């Protein structure tokens, strides 16, 4: 295996330390805070280098699934993720995950990124124009989207009637069914206890539509 830089050694040591002390690896945010790296992209650069040099494996779809290759499953705690066979690199897509979306800021502004996940391209349709969003609230529970789930969204400014979209209404993003009507656009929750959000057609702008939901991920 190739040699490591001092910073790469520090990252690897911190991951080992976290697994030994807590039973699970750190998040990208935790690694960044520990190493003084402000950007999650900067953390990912170190992790990709460790993977490329053969010191680290990462499970698809799990942000807390980092494991140094020299830490055997026999020595791991019961709740430590076990590495699965990796899909070919060409079949994997690295998706940024945002904690929230606010008006007036870039969709994937660094301060809103909470993690990245690597997933099989077959699980999301739409190529590289995909972002992840952590769901807050119960407005879509009857569509099987629960509080705390992660949704994967294909970025686009148009949608078909009845599709589940992420829309920016006011200062916050919302996940709802999309129904354009004659005089207004109806954003319909999948919760019989909640009323729809109505936006007058004259007030609706294409920039309000951030994308269409293409997949849902839930930690069990």
TrEMBL record:
E.C. code: 3.4.21.88
Catalytic reactions on record: Hydrolysis of Ala-|-Gly bond in repressor LexA
Region spans: Disordered: 62-86
Source domain of life: Bacteria
One of the protein's GO biological processes: SOS response
GO molecular function terms listed in the Swiss-Prot or TrEMBL record: DNA binding; serine-type endopeptidase activity
Keywords: Autocatalytic cleavage, DNA damage, DNA repair, DNA replication, DNA-binding, Hydrolase, Repressor, SOS response, Transcription, Transcription regulation
InterPro entries: LexA (IPR006200), LexA-like (IPR039418), LexA/Signal_pep-like_sf (IPR036286), LexA_DNA-bd_dom (IPR006199), LexA_repressor (IPR050077), Peptidase_S24_LexA (IPR006197), Peptidase_S24_S26A/B/C (IPR015927), WH-like_DNA-bd_sf (IPR036388)
Active-site residues, Swiss-Prot/TrEMBL: 139 (for autocatalytic cleavage activity), 176 (for autocatalytic cleavage activity)
Domain LexA repressor DNA-binding stretches: 1-65
Residues of the DNA-binding region: 28-48
Domain Peptidase S24/S26A/S26B/S26C: 96-213
Swiss-Prot/TrEMBL site (Cleavage) positions: 103-104
PANTHER family linked to this entry: LEXA REPRESSOR, LEXA REPRESSOR-RELATED
Subunit structure: Homodimer.
Family: Belongs to the peptidase S24 family.
Function, in words: Represses a number of genes involved in the response to DNA damage (SOS response), including recA and lexA. In the presence of single-stranded DNA, RecA interacts with LexA causing an autocatalytic cleavage which disrupts the DNA-binding part of LexA, leading to derepression of the SOS regulon and eventually DNA repair.
Protein name: LexA repressor
Species in which this protein is naturally found: Polyangium jinanense
């Amino acid at each position: 295996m190739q040699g490591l830089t001092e910073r790469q050694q520090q990252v690897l040591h911190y991951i080992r330390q976290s697994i030994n002390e807590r039973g699970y690896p750190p998040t990208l945010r935790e690694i960044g805070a520990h190493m003084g790296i402000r950007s999650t992209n900067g953390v990912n650069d170190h992790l990709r280098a460790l993977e490329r040099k053969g010191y680290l494996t990462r499970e698809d779809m799990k942000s807390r699934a980092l494991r140094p290759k020299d830490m055997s499953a026999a020595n791991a705690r019961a709740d430590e993720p076990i590495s699965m066979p990796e899909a070919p690199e060409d079949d994997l897509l690295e998706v940024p995950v945002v904690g929230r979306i606010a008006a007036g800021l870039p969709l994937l502004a660094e301060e809103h990124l909470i993690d990245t996940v690597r997933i099989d391209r077959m699980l999301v349709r739409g190529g590289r124009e995909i972002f992840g969003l952590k769901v807050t609230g119960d407005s879509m529970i009857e569509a099987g989207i629960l509080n705390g789930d992660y949704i994967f969204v294909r970025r686009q400014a148009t949608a078909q009637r009845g599709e589940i979209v992420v829309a920016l209404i006011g200062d916050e993003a919302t996940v709802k069914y999309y129904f354009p009507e004659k005089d207004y656009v109806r954003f319909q929750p999948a919760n019989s206890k909640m009323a729809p959000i109505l936006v007058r057609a004259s007030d609706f702008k294409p920039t309000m539509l951030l994308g269409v939901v293409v997949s849902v991920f839930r930690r069990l």
